[in-house]
Amino acid sequence: MSYFSSDFKLGILGGGQLGKMMLYATRKFDIATKVIDSSKDAPSRLACDEFVQGDILDYDTVLEFGRSVDLLTFEIENVNVDALETLENEGKKVYPSSKTLRTIQNKATQKLFYTDHHIPTAPFSRFAYASEIEDAIDNGGLSIPFVWKSARFGYDGQGVKVIRTISDLKELPNTECIAEALIPFKNELAVIVARNESGEIKTYPTVEMEFHPEANQVEYVLCPARLPEHITNKAEALALKVADAYKHVGLLAVEMFLTKDDDVLVNEVAPRPHNSGHYSIEGSFTCQFEQHLRAILNLPLGKTESTVAGVMVNLVGAENHTGDVLYKNIEHIMAMDGVTPHIYGKKQTRPFRKMGHVTIIDKDINKARAIAQNVKETIQVISK
Amino acid sequence: MSYFSSDFKLGILGGGQLGKMMLYATRKFDIATKVIDSSKDAPSRLACDEFVQGDILDYDTVLEFGRSVDLLTFEIENVNVDALETLENEGKKVYPSSKTLRTIQNKATQKLFYTDHHIPTAPFSRFAYASEIEDAIDNGGLSIPFVWKSARFGYDGQGVKVIRTISDLKELPNTECIAEALIPFKNELAVIVARNESGEIKTYPTVEMEFHPEANQVEYVLCPARLPEHITNKAEALALKVADAYKHVGLLAVEMFLTKDDDVLVNEVAPRPHNSGHYSIEGSFTCQFEQHLRAILNLPLGKTESTVAGVMVNLVGAENHTGDVLYKNIEHIMAMDGVTPHIYGKKQTRPFRKMGHVTIIDKDINKARAIAQNVKETIQVISK
């Protein structure tokens, strides 16, 4: 099969920023693409060969879309997985697979998968309804504090809450959920694994994620993680084990906790290019979006080492600002050493909305981290 | 002025591969673009906000196009420069300027410009018609061998010929031209200079170009050049002097000869992103296309140092192949270390047509050069 400047057409479900950046790689390879998103102003509306406005949670829409392309992938997990399964049964290639996506879409199922495959993860209990949690506490089957996670549709800190008192329970939606042990961790880590159809598999270096304490969003991603090699080796080995358990094809971002005892536990995974890999556009031999393409098209995987150290800063909408976006002081950060802004193209900002990211590369990770802080303190995503 | 996710619109004359790669940077910054090219299948037809099919050599077409955008740039020199001048007189920003472009478009004028500005260049004679050359030889004013160059519209080796015998003169078109001394040079070098409206100026490292002996096209570009620092310093200083003489805004690629006596002479310049800077997409802190945007929008310039060594191999159509393109063995080169292909998206190949390029990055320039040779000997751009 020749993909380059050919009649082959890749379908992509979802047209957000991840899809937009995936299109840099399809353009580079001249691979024709068809994108579907519910918004006509989706960041991926440009640079694809064909754009369709439609609901990717709708069975018939996804089925019809999938039938019109040669291979189907997605840039967001929240898609109709039944349609993907039907397409696979019809012989269509869907990567990552519907089976992987189905397991991942439900956090309870995902956690059980780790338990079944002897993959270390934080202890948890599963509840069909959040209302059952209080009974479990009363019965002594669960104790406060713990982390409540909605089983479905959690994204960017939505659907995750630390429960410290009984009264915290009142605000929870009464849906399927898990209660996870509150692990006293030193660091949150991530490793992106790429695996192609032939089984060639590679990991990117372990990255370290620093979170915003309130918004539960990643503020800084550092590559490499500032940790000893025996820890990062352990994280990479665990990520490989996870990807192997899923028999994954495509990218798999494995998020992990490093406990105070230097144990590494899997938190959750994302079967796609991931925020923790954005640094790779500037800092790696092979950017994650190109790697995802290589993996799903069963091409040889690219080198995953870094060329330089990289820090990624998320650009999220400032609090108290809603409306037409303005990137205040962006010209000041562009004067800093090794700084590249990525603007996703969303016209409207609102508090904590992901509007873009900034990559800082430098030969020295500590210098990059210092510049990243300066970037963070200088640029403001506000409304006009 | 805010360019990012705003109503600002950048116009780009020409929709070839350079424009296509420029759009990677406009998409990254979410800067709206309008592109014009005579071909509806131009590589830049995707990823711009608006595409217009039209003749960029036509005065009225360029004028109308320029009036519809906020700032105008180009990806090819062969555009209607009178229209650019009118637009400037109307107050439109055009970068690089019409004045620079007018000087450069004619090789005789360009050479005179260097002489006027005390910029070292190979000695030359100017002829209004090629038919005058034979008289000059007869009179003893010119001696064989020399390099004939058409004053206008030379591109990729067209319009350049080494004249070794009187009979070589017969095939020349009878147009304005120069006869340039045949300099016995050791190397062909290039330095890309970026300069913004405020006068901030930076050079990329000196690169070394290796040419295909017959097609007179660059086969390999190596960054850094494998030359002593006192030579590359001299080349970079000369490139700065040239950009300063033009009061250039945007990128200026300065091609130079290194003579056997270690003198550096300016050959010619291109006022735009350039083939000799393609390595920068993977190998530099700031890719040349982003840098061009920074320069013309008067944003701070990015760091021009390399993160790793890079070698660029042009992918040109194989001899004896014309028709629908096939990139034979592309999957084999993708398995090599640090290799990324760029496919421009031209559906039809023909002998020596530029169809794409491949970048090889490595911490060691000699290792990258060896892999580049392997790439060159493996991939074939043929017809189906």
Automatic annotation (TrEMBL), chains A, B:
Reactions the enzyme catalyzes: 5-amino-1-(5-phospho-beta-D-ribosyl)imidazole + hydrogencarbonate + ATP = 5-carboxyamino-1-(5-phospho-D-ribosyl)imidazole + ADP + phosphate + 2 H(+)
Key words, A-Z: ATP-binding, Ligase, Nucleotide-binding, Purine biosynthesis
Domain ATP-grasp intervals: 111-297
UniProt-listed Gene3D superfamilies: 3.40.50.20, ATP-grasp fold, A domain (3.30.1490.20), ATP-grasp fold, B domain (3.30.470.20)
Binding site for ATP: K107, K149, E180, A181, L182, I183, E188, N267, E268
Class in the EC hierarchy, top level: ligase
Signal peptide positions (record): none
Pathway membership, UniProt: Purine metabolism; IMP biosynthesis via de novo pathway; 5-amino-1-(5-phospho-D-ribosyl)imidazole-4-carboxylate from 5-amino-1-(5-phospho-D-ribosyl)imidazole (N5-CAIR route): step 1/2
EC number: 6.3.4.18
Superkingdom, taxonomy of origin: Bacteria
Similarity field: Belongs to the PurK/PurT family.
Subunit comment: Homodimer.
Role: Catalyzes the ATP-dependent conversion of 5-aminoimidazole ribonucleotide (AIR) and HCO(3)- to N5-carboxyaminoimidazole ribonucleotide (N5-CAIR).
Cited PANTHER family: PHOSPHORIBOSYLAMINOIMIDAZOLE CARBOXYLASE, PURINE BIOSYNTHESIS PROTEIN 6/7, PUR6/7
HAMAP family named among the record's database cross-references: PurK (MF_01928)
Record's protein name: N5-carboxyaminoimidazole ribonucleotide synthase
